[in-house]
Design brief:
about 350 residues, alpha/beta, 9 helices, eight-stranded mixed β-sheet, binds zinc ion, globular
Length: about 350
């Protein structure tokens, strides 16, 4: 090391030492993965029910000294066999806890217990990245702990007036205690613009509303100092892509979401999907290419007058099966059906929802 470099590094060390522990920038040892998600393959007997009492919620990764990721056990929850629930993230310190998503309702007490293993600070802020029960299920529980719930207006609408279930029955009535109270909208004129910014515990946290993509009420959450973005479920690396179209999602919107991440993330930013492994933005490229390829092929077949059954039978995901963990038939068929519905006569979003055609 030459003397100039040594002098600079001594200066840097002195500066770091002068800064309180909670406001240091990203350190090279982060992120630290403690429990990686399972890889499978997983299978469940017919009639299997999730044994919620056996599911553990653990600290599975540390993104900075005061930014921890929580996730559930593998191999037990057939909705998410790689790790039960959707990832939750807790920023903690003297200003209280800011929580991103809540895990499922059935494991609310275990999620709180996991948080209490590293902080006794009050839970003040909760933001929902989208409406699914593995992300919002314990909203009411955490509101009762004192959290103020933030989300897109569309998510609030989806929760207050749920779309009909696949069988045509009305959706479940919401628990009023779990409905977001602090709401904002996606602004198509300024994609990537934070709707809310919190300065807490030495971090700067941006809630960035997304275009309709995984649902019409998505928010990504950026932690500027830790250099981390929670990108929720428009990207996944366990199972095929899922756009929740009845809740306003769209496969084409997922392409827009990926393109926005390309702009708001740096090459070294850690991206935290709701499920699967942690990634960098370069990992989004093959996923994007697969979406583009399948969209084009399904459009061609549908334009030729092929039925949904024919298009599903064409097995268009075959080139991707080897590299897609959790590539079940159900996951493939759902993906192809969504693309088929989207390439022609795609219903518009009304109050965060779409009225989708029913297939036999
Ligand atoms: Zn999820």
């Amino acid at each position: 090391m030459n003397t100039n470099v040594r002098a600079l590094s001594l200066l840097a060390a002195a500066l770091l030492a002068a800064v309180p522990a909670l406001v240091v920038a990203q350190r090279p040892e982060y992120p630290i993965t403690i429990v990686p998600p399972g890889k499978g393959p997983f299978s469940f007997p017919e009639g299997y029910q999730t044994p919620w009492d056996r599911i553990e919620i653990m600290v599975t990764a540390k993104m900075s000294p005061n930014l921890f990721v929580l996730h559930g056990s593998e191999g037990l929850d057939p909705a998410h066999p790689d790790a039960s629930g959707g990832r939750a993230i807790a920023l903690f310190g003297p200003d209280g806890v800011l929580l991103v998503d809540t895990e499922n309702r059935q494991v609310a007490d275990k999620t709180l217990k996991a948080i209490r293993s590293f902080t006794s600070a009050p839970i003040k802020i909760l933001v929902n990245t989208h409406i699914h029960p593995d992300h919002t299920g314990a909203n009411a529980f955490f509101a009762q702990q004192g959290a103020v719930i933030f989300a897109q207006n569309n998510l609030r609408n989806e929760m207050l007036h749920p779309p009909a279930r696949a069988n045509g029955q009305p959706g479940p009535a919401p628990d009023p205690a779990g409905v977001p109270v602090a709401v904002y909208d996606y602004n198509a004129a300024a994609p990537g613009q934070p709707a809310v910014t919190f300065n807490m515990n030495g971090e700067t946290v941006d809630f960035i509303p997304m275009m309709p993509s995984h649902t019409a009420g998505d928010t990504i959450v950026r932690f500027r100092k830790a250099n981390v973005i929670y990108i929720e479920d428009f990207y996944r690396n366990f199972g095929y892509p899922f756009a929740d179209q009845v809740n306003g999602g769209s496969i084409k919107g997922m392409l827009d979401a990926i393109d926005l991440i390309e702009k708001v993330a740096g090459a070294d930013t850690t991206l935290v999907p709701g499920h699967g492994t942690l990634i960098k933005k370069s990992d989004l490229r093959p996923y994007r290419a697969m979406l583009v390829d399948v969209l084009a092929k399904v459009k061609t077949l549908r334009d030729q007058g092929k039925s949904l059954k024919d298009v599903v039978a064409a097995n268009l995901t075959a080139p991707y099966d080897k590299t897609t963990l959790g590539d079940t038939q159900q996951s493939k068929d759902r993906f192809i059906t969504e693309v088929y519905d989207e390439v022609r006569d795609f219903p518009p979003i009304v109050d965060g929802k779409r009225t989708m055609p029913r297939h036999q």
